[in-house]
Specification:
The chain is mainly α and 175 residues long. Helices cover 43% and strands 5% of the residues. The protein has 7 helices and 2 strands, in the order H-H-H-E-E-H-H-H-H. The chain has a two-stranded antiparallel ribbon with strand order 1-2. Strand 1 and strand 2 form a beta hairpin. The two termini are 30 Å apart.
Length: 175
């Protein structure tokens, strides 16, 4: 599954707003400059985010955009749903889709259903740790990546497999 440019940029906008979350509105021109994205293209993205209630918008002098809840209250899924819609791997599994006439004898339907079942329980939240060093999740990630990169093989991620892996929030970016 590939996330569109709009989806990736929407995530970047939300991260930028979280990093500059002073309570005031952040001008779109400032976001565009920091993110090196066309202001015109960002207009369509923040319009979508605003219409779906993820950000507040204020026009005119002193206007711009701001988060309307705490950064850790947003999930990646919340944001991507705005730009990508459903993350169902095939049209017949989209929410509200009619049962396909081929469903009774479709040879791939079960596979697509299982893929969707695997994807659905995962709620990904943002984390960005300034200073990186010493943060347990970053240290764990470094150990796993370094071991794989040096050819020693892949380590089991015991925390992930034990279910101890915490959900990460957009608000964690500021830690």
């Amino acid at each position: 599954m590939m996330i569109s440019t709009k989806g990736r940029y929407a995530l970047r906008v939300m991260i930028d707003l979280a990093e500059h979350n002073s309570g005031g509105y952040v001008p779109l021109a400032d976001i565009a400059k920091r993110q090196e994205i066309s202001e015109k293209y960002l207009e369509s993205i923040v319009s979508m985010l605003s219409k779906k209630g993820l950000v507040d918008a204020l026009r005119g002098k002193g206007g711009g955009y701001r988060l309307n809840r705490a950064p850790d209250q947003y999930t990646v899924a919340d944001i991507l749903y705005v730009t990508e819609g459903s993350m169902a791997p095939v049209a017949c599994l989209e929410p509200g889709a009619k049962t396909c006439d081929r469903a009774p004898y479709c040879r791939t339907l079960d596979m697509w259903k299982r893929l969707l079942e695997v994807m659905q329980p995962h709620e990904v939240r943002f984390v960005w740790v300034k200073g990186h060093d010493g943060h347990p999740q970053n240290e764990r990630c470094d150990t796993l990546a370094t071991t794989a990169a040096d050819g020693s093989g892949l380590l089991d991620d015991v925390e992930l497999e034990s279910g101890k892996n915490e959900q990460l929030g957009l608000g964690d970016i500021l830690k």
